[in-house]
Amino acid sequence: MKFPGRRKLKHYFPVSQPKPALPSFEVQPEKDTYIVGLDETIVDVVANISDQFLEKFKIQKGLSNLVDAATASAIYDELTAQECISDHFAGGTIGNTIHNYSVLADDKSVLLGVMSSNIKLGSPAYHYICHTSSKVDMNHLQAVEGDIGRGITLITPDGERTFAIAPGDMDDLDTHHIPENIIAGAAALVTCAYPLRHQTKPIKEAMVKALEYAHNHHVPAVLTLGTKHLVEEHKEELLELIKNYVNVLAMNELEAEALTGIKDPLEAASAMLDHVDLILLTAGADGMYLCGHTDDSVKRETTNPIKSASLADFNRWEFSRPMLQANCKNSIKVFSHIDPYLGGPEKIKNTNGAGDGALSALLHDISANHFHKESVPNSSKHAAPYLAYSSFAQICKYSNRVSYEILAQNASRLSKGLPEQEDSLEEAYWER
Q1: Which of 44, 135, 265, 266 is the most buried (most CB within 10 A)?
Q2: pLDDT of 243 strictly over 80
Q3: What pLDDT, on the 0 to 100 scale, is given for residue 332?
């Protein structure tokens, strides 16, 4: 694994040494540091159309319309013929997250999901692959005869956005395509709550099986909640899933309120820390919170200004490093908060993917800890069984910076690493 930060090395090829083997693009569990993501594979298509186009396909303007595969194909063919399509974006909250992780870490990740067995030039599956980092290992995807999901955004001359959603075969992922050995060797497994919407589809059982494998092999399991409405609809089932399998929970303030019934983000996070080990909570213009556990014996007090809100002096121990509650002899709850980087972008082009970007930074730090522990097991950095390499406060800074980069562009995925990526983690690697 390339440790966090872009290394400045002098490349040379000593003739006295044997030539190294060519790098493998497929993940090797016994050698590589990587994360695994399970997702509904979907492509977002953006097109500019007329009102007559909506009438032709009987699509209700300004709403999210669920369409069947035949209608979706007819819409897509018509858009292509009229050259109305302005953009294709590979989508999916977990697809975005592991792509961003591979861009930030410049290293491998594994995507579990479905992919069209027959990929045509210009097809949704083609665009999905083109817009996904080459570091993402897709060798474990399940082949399907139909299309992956398509989310078509139709923009009329008045600026109104109308959505035509075609699930395709994106929910046909089955348990036979969940590789236990790949999950067992991962630094983390990340998935989302969206499969709970499809109780009769194979992907729900596949997601649960992946979480079971992670739990059995002591691999940190990360879950994102999706949307407020999804949480409200499946609250009891979600809580049961979280209590049984989840270590890290990612959500926004609306989802947190829907899950706990508590409006205040800090109090909602504190309540959920009775069931999970770490929480990344994004709160829009109010910034983000990282909340978790550490052992009282290794807690570290912040040198930043002390903050109080619904919880007094809540950030006092934010220079501590996250730990699994089960690994703490005397666990304490730790809270850290950060305002939006530079106050947020001057102009926000797209809010999609900001939370996914923040989560990818957290996953990068978790995998960095995994890598360093494997490489330098006797380092003082591992005097306690920490979950992440950096402190709560430092992870907040990193996640915040990645979110800013997503908000400042017009796509939900990073196209490259941060402009001036800090090397603090990498430099600390050499400090034994």
Answers
A1: 265
A2: yes
A3: 96
Tell how many helices (H) and how many strands (E) occur in the chain: 13, 16
**Binding site annotation covers 271?**
no
pLDDT in tens, 316-358: 999 999 999 999 999 999 999 999 877 666 666 556 678 999 9
Q: What backbone phi and psi angles, to 5 degrees, belong to 418?
A: -65, 145
Nearest to 318 by CA among 221, 389, 395, 254: 395
Confirm whether residue 200 is marked as ligand binding: no
93 annotated as a binding-site residue: yes
295 annotated among ligand-binding-site residues? no
CA distances from 168 to 22, 119, 148, 172, 227 (A): 37, 14, 5, 9, 21
Say whether 423 counts as a known binding-site residue: no
DSSP 8-class letter at 323: B
Q: Is 41 annotated as a binding residue?
A: yes
Note the helical H segments in 145-224. Answer: 180-184, 202-216
pTM for this prediction: 0.88
- Please check whether residue 251 is in contact with residue 281, taking contact to mean a CB–CB distance below 8 angstroms: yes
Question: Residue type for 375, please?
Answer: S
Query: Nearest to residue 341, comparing CAs of 411, 269, 270, 420?
Result: 420
151 in Cβ contact with 163 (< 8 Å): yes
353 is in an annotated binding site: no
| Sequence-ordered list of residues with C-beta below 8 angstroms from that of 138, at least 6 positions apart, any chain | 111, 115, 129, 132
Q: Give the span between the Cα atoms of 112 and 179, in whole angstroms.
A: 9
